[in-house]
Amino acid sequence: MKKPRRCGVVAAVVALVLLACLQIQYHxxxxxxxxxxxxxxxxxxxxxxxxxxxxLSISMLNHWSFQVDLGKAGFASGTTQDNRWGTRRIATGxxxxxxxxxxxxxxxxxxxxxxxxxxxxxxxxAPCFLLPLHSPPLYAxxxxxxxxxxxxxxxxxxxxxxxDTMARKFLNENYAVMLFHYDGNVxxxxxxxxxxxxxxxxxxxxxxxxxxxxxxxxxxxxxxxFIFLWxxxxxxxxxxxxxxxxxxxxxxxxxxxxxxxxxxxxxxxHRITIRNKMTKVHRRIYDNRPSMNCSDESKGPPCTGWVExxxxxxxxxxxxCVWHLIQNDLIHGWGLDMKLGYCAQGDRTEKVGVIxxxxxxxxFEDPCEYDL
Length: 372
Fold this sequence. Notes:
globular; disordered C terminus; Lysine ketoglutarate reductase trans-splicing-like protein
């Protein structure tokens, strides 16, 4: 009668040893995948052979996660991501594709119908199709990295002169430009020499928030490091987009706007947006008036952690959050600016700021002055 009991004890011990071995092998595979994907941040990883090795590593990890998924036994599920190790599953729906062919991102670069793709100078493809889940953006890893940015504006033909100046500043830095035409007039822009380089989208009587919700989805925008979602009536005579982004990165900001020049702007509604000539960036204001009561103790708008909806600039991570914040029926965006701090990727009092070093001006131009 004692023999079966001994067999049961032995079986239990063997089962525990087996589970321990499976767990050790599984975590070993996760370490391998993490090391491979970390090494993959180098541009050399774009070779087909390394893509092949990475695919095999992930395939092995997926296989083991399926084999050892034992409910609450402490193993990672085969249907979830493991954030501790920074690994990422291959995109859903792509398992039928040949190895190394995945292109998970898109962009707004126009492609010529008849030209050698090798000569195209807008190649912004990520250096590897699989990166650590929590790795910092490339512009934070490499100071020489050429940052990518998109300027998106809702425009009407009455502001063509001002938009022309704005677009040129960004296109000269090799940044992308997208114009949302709310007045139905697209042909009126074709005579501008840069018009064929911009993306033109038409929808009658819609605002930039409506366009942004439908055409700036984070999956498409993920190729860009920064998104400028601006109004069309900003004067940029003293604005330099590249210097602006340099400051934004060096200060660790995720959501910003250019400071407004009070001497040249026609109308300023919020004191925090006014340029401070003594600083490069300011994140808060001080005001003892009872209606404001802004001090070092202030933790939110209108004293700190706030930018106006007129000229916000978002990092990639911040935009992914903001896009989900935009409601489908949002029109003018009133009140949205008070909520942007939720997407600051940290403390809004540190990650949201107004950049004073390169300024903008609010202009309300007379459309009759344009010779169209």
